[in-house]
Amino acid sequence: MQQHNASNSNRSQKVLVIGGTGKTGRRVAERLIDRGVETRVVSRSTSPAFDWHDESTWKDALSGMTAVYITFAPDLAVPGATERIQQFVDAAVAAGVERLVLLSGRGEEEAQACEQIVQAQDVEWTIVRSSWFMQNFSEGEFAGMVHDGALTLPAADIPEPFIDVNDIADVAAAALTEPGHVHEIYEVTGPRMLTFVEVAEELSRQLERKIHFHGIAQEDFDVALSEAGLPKDIRWLLNYLFTTVLDGRNAYLCDGVQRALGRDPADFTDFVKRQLQQGTWDGTEPGVAA
Question: Three-class SS of residue 30?
Fold first, then answer.
């Protein structure tokens, strides 16, 4: 179900959500639909299909759309992303899109280059520059580690202000549908910083079972990723994040959620409580609710 009828108040809005099965895209689409906005959710498996690496899929996806939520998988930092974003943004503007909302990453030089591409367009734009997702521990790369009781990662004492993806989705949905967010850069973080050691401690306390943190050398981490069968681009990204981005450059809080929504972001404690209520780590399959 890719297209949905809009309510009278939002009938003129037609929003394309790229990566609609991803962590943020799925949630953004849900919020748009709840607001009565006509929403086209696209991925490689939808109709129309959308593939970042196949420009021939872009025209049908963009047809008739007035706004686009742009997420690039797996991350704007990967080689080639900047060129893809430039080509897509040019195509979107040529197709008549009037508003662009880009999900970006903190402390990533390549992501900031993509931001500048969007900012250079003569359309309404908003940048949502995000810290690391709390949901990486519930439905992402670290979910299996939580399920197995050990965060085995090449990081220990560098703090990160993890953010709830639901807050990102609320900010993006507001930027796509409301006035007052044009030409804003919302750098969004959670309300406090946590090291991975502290994350393990918080998970242990609430799950009432020990979640260990095991520091590991970067080289050993890469070998483990390879042995786990992760795709090459995901391996590259995780190595990049732990060797380049998680160096203390992002160890500070920002007020993007507060400025965009007029409320505080969700805390990691509340995130874990919610996952426990949903049975996220109860099943036999890592990261999947029972």
Answer: helix
Tens of pLDDT along 227-269? Answer: 989 888 889 999 999 988 999 999 999 999 999 999 999 999 9
Whether the CB-CB separation of 42 and 2 falls below 8 Å is answered with: yes
Q: Would you list the domain boundaries of the chain?
A: 8-134+163-190+252-266
Structure tokens belonging to residue 211: 């979640």
Q: Is the pLDDT of residue 216 over 70?
A: yes
- Residue 12: pLDDT band (50, 70, 90) is confident
CATH code of the region 8-134+163-190+252-266: 3.40.50.720
User: For 135-146, b where at least 16 C-beta lie within 10 A, e where not — what string?
Assistant: bbbbbbbbbebb
Place of tokens 């929504």: 261
Angle at 73 between CA 266 and CA 5, to 5 degrees: 70
Residue 225 contacts residue 235 (beta carbons within 8 Å): yes
Helix (H, G, I), strand (E, B) or coil at 119: helix
Lowest mean pLDDT among 2-11, 43-52, 124-133, 167-176: 2-11
Q: Is 211 left (phi over 0), alpha (psi -120 to 50) or beta?
A: beta
Cβ proximity of 101 and 119 under 8 Å? no
CA-closest candidate to residue 165, choices 192, 126, 136 = 136
Whether the model pTM is above 0.85 = yes
Q: Where are the alpha helices (DSSP H) in the chain?
A: 23-34, 58-62, 81-94, 109-119, 143-148, 165-177, 196-207, 218-227, 232-240, 256-261, 268-278
